[in-house]
Amino acid sequence: MRGEYIKGLRERRKRSFWKILIPFVIFIVLATVLAVRFRPGPASGVRLTLDDVKRLAGKGDALTWEDFEGYENEDVGSGIFVYRYPIDGRFDLLIGSPQERGEIMYIYLRDLDTGASIDIRTEDTEAFLRGDPSVNAPSGTLPEFSSAVAYVNWTQGEMIPGCLNMDKMMISSVRHLPVYKLDTKEDLDRFKANNGDKLTLDHGYNEAPSFNEVVSSYDESFFAGHTVILAYVSASSGSFRYALKGVCADGSALCLDVIQTNDPEVYTGDMAGWLVIAELSDADVAGYSEFDARLVDR
After folding, report:
1. In this predicted model, what pLDDT tens digit does every residue of 257-270 receive, in sequence order?
2. Which of 86, 80, 126, 132 is nearest to 106 (CA)?
3. pTM for the whole thing?
4. Do residues 94 and 106 lie in contact, with contact meaning Cβ atoms separated by under 8 Å?
């Protein structure tokens, strides 16, 4: 009897083992299949060439993920999905989307030597590769502007959705900052309502004022002649401070250049967030359809 009991116990243990193992194996297989299915291309595939880029650029807005199947790539996204396709030592290609294999926001051909880039769907790829100075060349800076900086607390990527330069949120040599544009008092009220649960708008930090304090004078009469551009900066310490260095005009784009103004040897371990605010005249902003901000060297 004891032998039969032990034998039955062993059989039950075997059945329990397989009941656990089989679903686990099925899960691993399905996860692998899905990962392969939804990747835009194999990590180890055929390397994209400049001739491929020229040919693909001819399709313009008709380009899809399928056009890049089989080309070597890597996922370098931060906040959104960004896939990098290496080409050679000087150029690479970046494709960005808010979700895996979702709507393509941009297809940038990037010059790694200069940091310049173009969207091959809408811009002149041949001229860019020739090094035509008229392509991506800055057209100047705005000489007059007023600015302020407000403490708004730290968030982890929550300011990226809805910003005007979401296509720039990628890992690159330039750190782009989420940008918002306020044309009216209603825009300001809407910004505060939409971000009141993400940001701290009514409290300052040491000597730094709160956002509500800074914008308290932005009424209808102010917006009758002004436009406000906001750039959000997240910082690893509340000891760091930021300021607006300048406003650059580049073709149809306006860009805020933000700098870190201090470099303390000892700093706090808290996280912080700031809104760098540019007050521009409507005349200076007129004609620009794209807006960006970046953290630059002093």
Report:
1. 999 999 999 999 99
2. 80
3. 0.60
4. yes
More confident residue, 235 or 168: 235
> Between 215 and 28, where is the model more confident?
215
Contact indicator for 147, 153 with CB cutoff of 8 Å: no
Q: Give the mean model confidence (pLDDT) for residues 242-252.
A: 86
Strand partners, 71: 46
**255 closest CA partner among 274, 279, 231, 223:** 231
Which residues, 6+ apart, have CB-to-CB distance to 142 below 8 Å?
A: 246, 247, 248, 249, 254, 280, 284
DSSP one-letter code for 44: S
DSSP-derived pairing of the beta strands 290-295 and 253-260:
parallel
C-alpha dihedral sign at 197, 200, 203, 209? negative
pLDDT band at 138 (very low <50, low <70, confident <90, very high): very low
- The number of angstroms, rounded, from the C-alpha of 205 to the middle of its chain's C-alpha atoms is 26
- Give me the mean pLDDT over the 199-225 stretch: 96
Q: Which of 118, 127, 52 is nearest to 85 (CA)?
A: 52
How many C-beta atoms surround the C-beta of residue 229 within 10 A? 26
Q: How far is CA 40 from CA 50, 55, 70, 134, 247, in A?
A: 19, 19, 8, 33, 37
∠ CA 11-12-13, nearest 5°, is 90
Least reliable range by pLDDT among 44-58, 101-115, 250-264? 101-115
Give 105's Cβ-side CA count (13 Å radius).
18
- Hey, how many other C-beta atoms are within 10 angstroms of the C-beta on 291? 20
What are the structure tokens assigned to 143, written together?
Answer: 């000489």
Task: Name the residue with tokens 């009424």.
Answer: 219
Q: Could you tell me how many residues make up the chain?
A: 298
Tokens of 225: 């002649």
